[in-house]
């Protein structure tokens, strides 16, 4: 770094520190500040690396993330003359999913014995230490929080960086932040009637079936975990599922006015902007998608969480790699309503792009904030980078990886700057939405298909839909069959649409009751790739899911939409499983 630049960074750091200490009355705000910025999110993060010492009782190692296996400990935090020092007793355990299972540098959950303020953050018992091990910059979560706070998403987490010693062992640079939970100083919702949920595959019924606090959502079949009320009764779980289904049905109909009664659409738009800006693919699973509703209020998106799966992470090296900023790709795609050029995320996040008013508001919001939100957030990251240099060097010595943090921070800045330009072109070219369409039933076709149990996923038979018959029924041409106006959806037994959870462009996994679901409970599947009338099919033979002689009757539906009318043809497939 040139001398002049070093001086400038040091001067900025001193000004920033002075602001934290209250020596400067006001801080510079973004050129275009959103008018819905919450006061709770206006506090600047301290430009300092604090120190934390954790001593576990009997010097015991922290080896479990189970809720019941907290260990007693004492904690000392040095406020570095910016905040009050802290000293107290607490309990500690591991936390996280992939970050706990895959990596040597571990995340931790801390529960203080007494409610306390820590490093200027509001009083609570529950705190999180994020290791940011996969992230070579240490800034991805901090950047996501800063963007969300600046946009005005409520209850956004704060960031404090600390160097941590555990049982006398230096374990590196960590990010201290709040546990996402209900509470007056956290997600401040009514203690009796408030709801905090998380759309999360790991905490959902397929991967955590015995938890008692989760369910599959009724319309979009997303995994939902109820975070508040804690330990919900069966009745509460049923009520929340029913309540959430009302929002799902409104989104499914992409009727703006109906959705606006049940959800804060502005927060929904801002939430999607954050996810697309950092290319956070966690909403594909989904994972870590929090929503809350206060008593008598609407569903609101957030708090945001978990950004180190974004920034175009290379998932081919997910267990060992730290490879980011590889390309400019899309979560929502170039046509979100039809999942074109993006991830096949749940229609819960994309169905509203069929409504022209929503599309217009999304475009307007992006163009309002695109320049200022990046500029503001990156200025904060520059302060962090300046303050973290020595700590990152020590962390690198403790946890060496194949990336240089200074180089990666520069790559992160370039990638984000280029991404703003890229997304501006993409967003402004989103197709206009349509008004809700009228469906016309053009008839039904049935096929009988015999699959071999022994061949499992590798069947030699296919479902062959007669193209001439199909085109005649829909009243379309071969070219229209392969246009963006056509989609093929799996149907539930009640006739409503299910989700495509296969790797095909279209398709569906069907469970024992013939309803489309997930591989985890799937018996047979249909996958459609390049040929719209020749469908691959297969079955899940392992683990005793299917058996010889088993039969399944499943339904797929062609939907061709032009203007406000959708023509449909339903295809019934009768599967018989032979030897």
Quick tags:
579 residues; alpha+beta; Immunoglobulin-like; seven-stranded mixed β-barrel; five-stranded antiparallel sheet; 11 helices; 27% helix; globular; disordered N terminus
Question: Can you put this structure into words, describing what you see?
Answer:
The chain is of the alpha+beta class and 579 residues long. It folds into 3 domains: 3-139 and 148-178, no CATH class; 195-428; 438-578, Cadherins (Immunoglobulin-like, Sandwich), CATH 2.60.40. Helices cover 27% and strands 27% of the residues. The chain contains 11 helices and 21 strands. The protein has helices at 3-20, 98-102, 140-151, 234-252, 256-262, 265-277, 347-350, 356-398, 405-428, 467-474, 478-481, and strands at 49-56, 71-78, 86-94, 108-118, 121-130, 160-166, 169-178, 195-199, 214-216, 223-228, 289-293, 299-301, 438-452, 462-464, 486-491, 506-511, 516-517, 522-528, 534-539, 551-562, 565-578. Strands 1-2-3-4-5-7-6 form a 7-stranded mixed beta barrel. A hairpin with a 6-residue loop joins strand 9 (214-216) and strand 10.
